[in-house]
Amino acid sequence: MKYIIWTFRIILGLLFIFSGLIKANDPLGLTYKMNEFFEVWNMNYMVKYTEFMSVCMIAFEIITGVAMLVGNYFRFYITLLLLLNIFYTFLTGYALYSGKIKECGCFGDCIKLTNTVTFYKDVVLSLITLVLYIYRYRVFPIFQKAAINASIVGASVIFAFGIQWYTLTHLPINIPSAPLSLFHDCLPYKPGNNLWEKMQPDKDAVAPVYQTTFVYEKNGVKQNFTDKNYPWQDSTWKFVSSKNVLVKEGSGQPEIHDLTLTDANETDQTESILTAKGYTFLWFLRDPSTFKSNNMDRLKSLAAKAAAMHIPFYVACSADRGICKAFQEAWGMKDIPFLIVDGTVSKTALRTNPGLMLLKDGTVVKKWSYLDYPKDMTLENGNLELK
To answer: pLDDT tens across 242-255, in order?
Structure first.
């Protein structure tokens, strides 16, 4: 039994550390997934707490994974982990059988699993955790000195919260050579991606097939109908709700499908901007009312230098035109073209509010948070160097 317990400890510990590290590189990804659940459950009042909940949940995964291996306060952590796994199983089961959540996002955007795989993964992990809970009195710390065990777990606490603070303020870490999708920017707007190409479907693309299910009620009894047999002629049936159920997965669909940049005249400038040759700056301003104004002088200096070098510089603002215009005037940016972009697109393109993106021939070269704008830039032989 000792070897089984050790095997389960290693599996559980490494898996939770791995899962936590992937999500710690992009805590807002889990935040937006939580928002999706709360919106489906009509609990929108919880949305303002989701970022805090996301950071705590990710940190707990990393800390608990370390505690599983170290064995420090094992009885305490295995109890919490059992409750967490049961909760995860409920969530993934709901996503699977309700059809209202497309993906649970248990490994963020880097490793996508179907709801079926995710659910059965959590069932297995719950069983493993239950075994360790039953035999929790047989688990002892790996080091005899309690201070060493406590120090290791304590270091994991500092690391778990510290790395999330960094990625929330400086954008996700992107190290393409890192193994197992750790510290990768896995979003479609990552450096190296050509945005216009990502907006095009494959030549042999197949669209996903959905079926609309209608729920009607009669004499207190609810029944599901399709668009072919719903009782539209029988007024005794009362419409309750409807939902679209994925019948067949599509393939070859665009990775970016909702990016639209419109100017002050409501003209779509997306293609002209993303297919333009040379360098282009896009400053994503998601919410003018809550944006971080750090280094605005540095940003405006970059915009002025870009204009002198004939490098287009745009502001992609996610607000109505009146608010964008007021912001433009208040911050002395009348010479910089403002474009309107969807807020969800802005969240995906730049995780910070605001953030700067540099394109070359439509390909993302680099992204910066509001804390990291370049201090200077030079253009030599057609190559832009930023410092």
So the answer is: 766 666 767 778 88
